[in-house]
Amino acid sequence: MTATVLTGALVVDGTGAPGHRADVTIADGRIAAVDAPGTATGTTRHDLEGLVLTPGFVDLHAHSDLTRFAYPTGDTRVLQGITTEVIGNCGLSPAPTSGEGFRGAIATIDVVPSVPLSWESPAEYLDALDGLAAAWNVAPLLGHGSVRRRVMGDATHTATPADRAAMSRIVADALDAGYWGLSYGLMYAPGELSDPTELEALAATVAAADALVAVHMRAYDADGLVAAIDEILAVATTARARLQISHLRSILDPEGAALDAALSRICASVADVAADAYPYLAGHTTALQLMPSELRARGTAEILAEVRADRAALAGELRRTVHFPPDAITIVRAGEEHTPELGRTLEQLQAADPLGRDWALILLDLIDAHDAAVDAIIVGTRPDDAARVLAEPYVSVASDGVALALDHALNRPHPRSIGTFPHAMRDLLDAGFPLEAVVHKMTAQPADRLGLTSRGRIRVGAPADLVAVDPTTVRDRADYTHPLVAPVGIDRVWVAGQCVAESGHVTGRLPGVLLRRTR
């Protein structure tokens, strides 16, 4: 048996236990031994003196559902230490498909349109992932929005008992096929149209399988955050579901009062609830999220029809309802080409506009010109509030990012895609958190929340998904202008015992697998 010994590092095993010096032996893709320093023998030895050896980072919230097919080396994943990620979040999954208009319905995750959709059912999508060689592991959730559209098309009415039953059958079959749970996207069409009865019925189906319900809530702004928290806590309590609140944050919350109330509600809840968060002050989403909620819920085709029918009236509505200042909104995607608007704020575009249009008309013209394929990065969270959320003991670090190659050029991504885990580690360590607690938030805690007990720990028999990190230098270097710059301090990353990243470069090895849930 060929064995590799990693020696000299401080081993922080992911459980929160104190770090200790040890030799870690890898054989056949697994951790074969954890021995006293200097005692292990192996064919190959790697000296990691001065580094910390941790489990591979587990990202509970990602959107690499389609980009995995285009970028199998997963540069933005493995270069920051992510060895396993959970896809299918925010109610958006590439299966089940639902005919014409489906790619528009999942446009937020469809950033590489050249990837063909060669499947229809959730099980067929898993089969496609099974046949794909990639550098890191994925664990899929099923997107409620995709399920709803499969059953109800673009209908805007409340789901009937027959609709709910049909959706529940799709969810149950997907769980049997290996999905890890269901995600809701309650700010995206068609999930935004769902009422509590529908949400509770599907959550109960998931709870019966002891799987996870992840939720992008209806609102994160100060006016709607608390009501959104109350809604989803009630759903989880009624359905007895295990709940994961996605990218917990508050926006447009000048004194942090809404966040105070939201955190109090979570702590007082009887539901089985946890959350995840990223350390950035801006989100990245489709520009359609800026539309009035009643229009947004009707879907892309209806939005485009409204834009083209009465642009002036809709622009007036945006001026009344959008509370982000124009300098907080940066255009990062406009169609599939590099357009002059990319990387510029609405304020900058307004100041330079030769036609004298204001930001609202510029935005609507972009949406019209590019058939709604327009994304924006929007700043809205206070630094203190981002830090408060990440410090909560039930909050895991998660990126809300996507797997891309460093030469990706179809849009300008959010730096969280490549920098979340180094950024969060630096912030938490600088705030005085023990290294062991920080690593726990990135490894065993998110793995356990999903139910993925095989990952997130350094222990004998576990897959050899590992990260060698220098906690004194680790930090992200990507920003909103240069979002695809590798972090520093992530020395080496292994998946199944194979080195997939070293010194800021991917190696090209593809040992990652689809992780199917079994019951």
Q: Would you write up a description of this structure?
A:
With 519 residues, this protein is α/β, with parallel strands linked by helices. It folds into 2 domains: 294 residues, Metal-dependent hydrolases (TIM Barrel, Alpha-Beta Barrel), CATH 3.20.20.140; 94 residues, no CATH class. 33% of the residues lie in helices and 20% in strands. The protein contains 18 helices and 24 strands. The chain has a 7-stranded mixed beta sheet, with no helix packed on it. A hairpin with a 2-residue loop joins strand 23 and strand 24. The longest helix is centred in the N-terminal third of the chain and has 17 residues. The chain is globular and about 75 Å long. It starts with a strand and ends in a 13-residue tail after the last strand. The relative contact order is 0.17. The model has no long low-confidence stretch (mean pLDDT 96).
Write a brief structural summary.
With 519 residues, this protein is an alpha/beta fold. The chain has 18 helices and 24 strands.
